């Protein structure tokens, strides 16, 4: 039933390789942070309101949230810096 619902919306289920839970670790980490910040203990009046908050959070996460592991840069800043070195 779940897979059919995904297909109805033009989506494909993605799964990690067998016995390799670290395949999906970056996304699991992101979803944990997302849920902790905008889902848990919060109520939204509509799906639209929820989507606006999710979109704003993703923008913040990618463009403004600094990470120690990325030398104090946001993911977008770090990616831009590393592509400059590759080019």
Question: Percent of residues in helical segments?
Answer: 55-70%
Spans of at least 5 consecutive residues with low confidence: none
Largest beta sheet, briefly?
none
Shape: extended
SS-derived structural category: mainly alpha
Total number of beta strands: 0
Rounded to the nearest angstrom, the radius of gyration is 17 Å
Tell me the span between the first and last alpha carbons: 46 Å
Provide mean pLDDT, rounded.
87
Order of helices and strands: HHHH
Specify the number of helices: 4
Task: Give the strand content.
Answer: under 5%
Plain-language structure description:
The structure is a single chain. The protein is mainly alpha-helical and 87 residues long. It is 57% helix and 0% strand. It has 4 helices and no strands. It has helices at 2-8, 25-38, 47-63, 75-86. The longest helix is centred in the middle third of the chain and has 17 residues, at 47-63. The chain starts with a helix and ends with a helix.
């Amino acid at each position: 039933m779940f897979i059919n619902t995904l297909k109805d919306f033009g989506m494909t289920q993605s799964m990690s390789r067998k016995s390799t839970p670290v395949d999906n670790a970056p996304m699991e980490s992101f979803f944990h942070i997302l849920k902790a910040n905008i889902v848990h203990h919060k109520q939204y009046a509509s799906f639209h309101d929820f989507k606006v908050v999710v979109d704003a959070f993703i923008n913040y996460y990618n463009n403004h949230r600094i990470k120690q592991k990325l030398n104090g840069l946001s993911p977008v800043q770090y990616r831009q810096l590393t592509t400059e070195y590759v080019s």
